[in-house]
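A reminder from the course coordinator: this example appears on the midterm review sheet, so study it carefully.

Given structure:
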C-alpha cells in the first residue's frame, strides 16, 4: 500500500493512503486524514494506518455513522443470533434506555474515551432512575460496563486517541 503526507498549515498534516480498488467500478479508493501536530506524529499515524491495512484490520468508517446506529446493527447482527434471548433482551434494554439516549448521537468516528468516561462517571455519581421513580444503585452494570467490552470487540477503534 502507498501513502504520503503533505503539510496543510503550520501544524497540520494531511495523510493520504491508497486502500485498494472498488470491486464494482475498479476505481482507486483513498483514505484522507488530518493530523494536528508535528510531521513526526503524522508519519507515525501513517505507519499505523499502513500496518492496519496490511494486517486486514483497517475498516473504513462511514463519516455519518452514529453510535446508536452502529449499536443497533451490532444488536441485530451479533447479539440476536449468538446469545440467549434473555441476555439479548437485557442488552437491548440497557442500550435503549440508558446508553443510546446519552451517547447515541455521537458519530462513531468522533467517539473518544472521554465521552464514555464522562458517561460512566455521571452514572456512578448520580445513578439512574427506573420508570417507577426508584433510584438504581451505581453498579458497574448500571454504568454500562457490562456491555461495553462486547460491542467494542467488533469494531476497530482509532489508534490515535
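Designed residues:
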Amino acid at each position: 500500500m502507498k501513502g504520503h503526507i503533505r503539510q496543510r498549515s503550520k501544524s497540520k498534516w494531511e495523510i493520504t493512503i491508497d486502500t485498494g480498488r472498488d470491486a464494482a467500478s475498479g476505481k482507486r479508493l483513498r483514505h484522507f486524514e488530518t493530523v494536528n501536530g508535528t510531521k513526526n506524529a503524522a508519519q507515525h499515524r501513517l505507519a499505523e494506518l499502513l500496518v492496519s491495512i496490511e494486517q486486514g484490520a483497517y475498516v473504513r468508517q462511514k463519516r455519518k455513522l452514529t453510535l446508536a446506529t452502529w449499536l443497533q446493527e451490532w444488536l441485530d447482527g451479533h447479539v440476536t443470533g449468538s446469545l440467549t434471548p434473555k441476555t439479548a433482551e437485557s442488552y437491548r434494554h440497557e442500550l435503549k434506555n440508558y446508553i443510546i439516549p446519552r451517547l447515541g448521537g455521537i458519530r462513531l468516528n468522533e467517539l473518544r474515551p472521554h465521552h464514555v468516561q464522562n458517561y460512566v462517571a455521571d452514572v456512578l455519581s448520580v445513578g439512574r432512575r427506573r420508570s417507577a421513580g426508584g433510584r438504581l444503585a451505581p453498579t458497574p452494570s448500571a454504568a454500562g460496563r457490562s456491555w461495553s467490552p462486547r460491542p467494542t470487540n467488533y469494531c476497530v477503534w482509532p489508534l490515535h486517541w
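The CA atoms of residues 22 and 29 lie 6 Å apart. The longest strand covers residues 12-21.
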